[in-house]
Amino acid sequence: MSSSTAFNEEKGGSSSVGEPEYGHDPASGGIFSSDYKRHDDLKEMLDSNKDSLKLEAMKRIVAMIARGKNASDLFPAVVKNVACKNIEDPNQLIRASALRVLSSIRVTIIVPIMMLAIKEAASDMSPYVRKTAAHAIPKLYSLDPEQKDQLIEVIEKLLADKTTLVAGSVVMAFEEVCPERIDLIHKNYRKLCNLLIDVEEWGQVVIINMLTRYARTQFLNPNINESLLEEGSSGDKKFYGSEEDEDEDEDEEEKEKKADALAMAKRKPYVMDPDHRLLLRNTKPLLQSRNAAVVMAVAQLYFHLAPKAEVGVIAKALVRLLRSHSEVQFVVLQNVATMTIKRRGMFEPYLKSFYIRSTDPTQIKVLKLEVLTNLANETNISTILREFQTYIKSMDKDFVAATIQAIGRCATNIGEVRDTCLNGLVQLLSNRDELVVAESVVVIKKLLQMQPEKHSDIIKHMAKLTDNIQVPMARASILWLIGEYCEHVPKIAPDVLRKMAKSFTNEEDIVKLQIINLAAKLYLTNSKQTKLLTQYVLNLAKYDQNYDIRDRARFIRQLIVPTEKSGALSKYAKKLFLALKPAPVLESPFKDRDHFQLGSLSHLLNAKAGGYQELPDWPETAPDPSVRNVEVPEWTKCSSREKRKEKKVEKPFYSDSEGESGPTESADSDSASSSDSGGSSSNESGSGSESGESEDGSESDDEEEEEEDEDEKGKKKKKNELKKPVQESERLETLPSNDVPGSNVSKHKHKVIAMTMSCPVFLTLQTISPSSALKNFELLHRITGEGLSVDYCFSRQPFSPDANMVAVQMQFTNNGAADTKNLHIEDVKLQSGMRVKEFPEIELLPAGETATAVLGIDFCDSTQAANFQLCTHAKKFFVSIQPPVGELMRPVFLTENEFKKEQGQLMGMNEIAEKLTLDAKCRNEHAIVQRVTAAANLSRVPCGSDREFAGRTVTSSSLVLVTVATKEEGAAQLTVNCEKMVIGTMLVKDILLALTQ
Question: AP-3 complex subunit beta C-terminal domain: which residues (predicted)?
Answer without folding.
Answer: 728-864
